[in-house]
Amino acid sequence: MSKTDIKTAPLKPAVFHILLALADSSTHGYAVMQAVREQSAGAVRISTGSFYRHLGALMRDGLVEEAAGPTLDDPRRGLYYRITPRGRTVLARERERLAALVAAVDALGRAPRRGRA
After folding, report:
1. Strand 64-67 and strand 80-83: pairing?
2. Torsion-angle region of residue 66: left (phi > 0), alpha (psi -120 to 50) or beta?
3. d(CA 7, CA 52)
4. What is the pLDDT along the chain (117 residues), one digit of tens a residue?
5. Which residues touch 44 (CB under 8 Å, ≥6 apart)?
6. Mapping DSSP to helix (H, G, I), strand (E, B) and coil, where does residue 83 land?
7. CATH number, domain 3-110, options 3.20.20.70, 3.50.50.60, 3.40.630.30, 1.10.10.10
8. Which residues make beta-bridge pairs with 25?
9. Domain segments of the chain: what residues?
10. What is the 3-state secondary structure (H, E, C) of 22-46?
11. Residue 110 phi/psi, 5° resolution?
12. Fewest beta carbons less than 10 Å away: which of 26, 64, 90, 114?
């Protein structure tokens, strides 16, 4: 995933859900993976390996960055991550794109069919 891809291409479901999971607060990787599973009702399956590959690409592209964890850091939790302002912009664009798709599908049901009375 390169910076130009993010501007023009739809986000992969896993990437969208990772950004969405980080939209409210910074958290550790395991919590992000759990949030992806919950948000997608299990439809987006993400293994530890694929999660960290996506996360690495998001960090290289400046959409996610490392963040300070809580002051009473749990050593089992590892690093914390947060969405960047650029990541919020990309997430908002994807939301708009998805909303436009839903609106287009909804409009299909309201449009009169050609050749039918």
Report:
1. antiparallel
2. beta
3. 21
4. 455 455 557 999 999 999 999 999 999 999 999 999 999 999 999 999 999 999 999 999 999 999 987 756 566 667 899 999 999 999 999 999 999 999 999 998 776 666 655
5. 13, 14, 17, 36, 37
6. strand
7. 1.10.10.10
8. none
9. 3-110
10. HCCCCEEHHHHHHHHHHHCCCCCCC
11. -95, -20
12. 114
| Contacts of 3-9 spanning 24+ positions with Cβ under 8 A | 3/61, 3/62, 6/61, 6/63, 6/90
Q: What is the pTM of this model?
A: 0.81
Element (H, E) at 107: helix 85-110
Q: For tokens 């050749």, what's the residue?
A: 115
User: DSSP letter string over 50-67?
Assistant: HHHHHHHHHHHTTSEEEE
